[in-house]
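Q: Can I borrow your eye for a moment on a structure tokenisation matter? Would you mind producing a protein record, from residues through to fold? Write it directly below this note and I will take it from there.
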Amino acid sequence: MALSEELQWRGLVKDKTFGDISWLDEPKIFYLGLDASSDSLTIGNLAVCMLARRLINGGWKAVLLVGGATSLIGDPGGKTEERELLPREKVEANAAAIKNQVSQLFSGEPFTPADNYDWFKNVSYLDFLREVGKNFSMTELMQREFVSERMGTGGSGISYAEFSYSLIQGYDFWRLYTDHGVVLQVGASDQWGNMLSGVSLIRKKASQEVHALSMPLIVNKATGRKFGKTEEGAIWLDPAKTTPTQFYQFWINTDDADLDDYLKAFTLLPRDEIEKLMSEHKANPGARTAQTTLAKHVTRLVHGQNNNGQAEEVTKYLTSKVSIADVTEAELAEIKRGLPAISSSSGGSIIEALVKSSLASSNSDARRLLVAGAVYINGKQVNQENFESNDFQNGRLLLRRGKAFKDSALIELI
């Protein structure tokens, strides 16, 4: 399958500045820009990193731009409020951490690192206005979606610094074009306006055509929310922020409606394997074979084989496929990293345990869960208000709210 056909089949093409999609089948040099406002990427960033990985696999050469300069201002795209400004030292540390994460995602495939601070630190304000600002009309910039949203009725407003972000990103493309021969920028669709700035600037300054390609923002079909945004917060690629087990659990709890999209966007599995998985899933969705495969492949890609194996082993206890009585000390420590852990007596209150472990917001909420049949001990539905001695296996049990295994707590016998 040609690269262009694969990207379309996987649903990774939204907007493009080139007419014929087969233009992608002749490898050249592209760049992906990543923000350094945090020391870790999230699974929201993971999708576009996987798009970059597929281009590399298709023969393209990659330049990874980490925004050491732009992160000092903050990308206004998708934001309703002004970002907090970070010190340069923090941005430098974040950029280094992100480069390491991308190296893991690219599995050793080569890429050229770049940091836009390297050129912006020497660009004067007057030079920037003459070389860049002169090439953009206010009419064009005011029509950008993030500007119109922030300046419209009820908007929070936008500073001149954030308003100028699109011009700065355009200059990045110009520098990468002149320094590295980059002819394509890739990103998520919420970056489309910024991506067009570079295309326009290079056309005006060099009379050359370069291009941009955006992929759709992935949305959770069950909630309608932007992918990666949960009630608990972002799912990070850094294991210190989201443990490999928590990460694995996120994927294994994927809704049926999102499975096909996630397998295509977030794994390197070929088309025939994905179609086979989806066929098996439709025949027997209760087996959750497709979710398990998704969780294994994405966790291995992000965290490596060892952490993936540990996450799988811990999940066996959370799903009650293996008795919690048999847990090893290392596995127990990993469970405690990812789940709340409290103590109780053999006749202790389940309602109290639900509240103390934050599985319920109050005693009345806990009772409601019990009455609704939404409370499980070691994978078995219960409705009593107190633990019984045989609930504990080797001095511990797993208490769960609802069907999502991540909504569990470890209860240890006093």
About this structure: The domain at 338-413 is CATH 3.10.290.10 (Structural Genomics Hypothetical 15.5 Kd Protein In mrcA-pckA Intergenic Region; Chain A).
